[in-house]
Known about the structure:
Chain A is mostly beta strands.
Amino acid sequence: GQNIDQPTEMTATEGAIVQINCTYQTSGFNGLFWYQQHAGEAPTFLSYNVLDGLEEKGRFSSFLSRSKGYSYLLLKELQMKDSASYLCAVRDEKLTFGTGTRLTIIP
Amino acid sequence: DAGVIQSPRHEVTEMGQEVTLRCKPISGHNSLFWYRQTMMRGLELLIYFNNNVPIDDSGMPEDRFSAKMPNASFSTLKIQPSEPRDSAVYFCASRSGLAGTDTQYFGPGTRLTVL
């Protein structure tokens, strides 16, 4: 089975940097995804890691360590529109999602 | 591209009634997923199809839930009879293949309220 842990809530300041951590214990592993979900909307894809290391995509970066069962999503130059839930998901044959981290950006 | 289409967007029904949720995946995608999202349990996979064939339905909570995919462009999730604890947002998602990098695209969801 899959067990995925991430903090329930985080708060950060506009213009700053925030790191959202995700740890997992899984029976199989075929990649780790991060999704963003604004309130009342569907999740949208942010990033994908299958090998160890950092993947950078604009203001967002995602890191993976398979040996440690650990990933983080790094958001830079925070904007108010980044207030959302961020879902970590691990893929075996199917995607299993964590419960999400609700990020609030304050001015 | 219209994206994943779900209907209805909102459904309010009474306990004991049958509920049918509909999904049209992105054209050309051959994998389809049904999820349920609640505050308590987060996003849970109910069932997924590959090439219209159900692959894993271990997430379906009980026999009251059933899902079909009669063709590549249409799927239904049915709850009969519905109960108040079924109240949730139900998402359909599709993906173009089974390769690891293929991304799932989610529909807008159906918000179901069972009174």
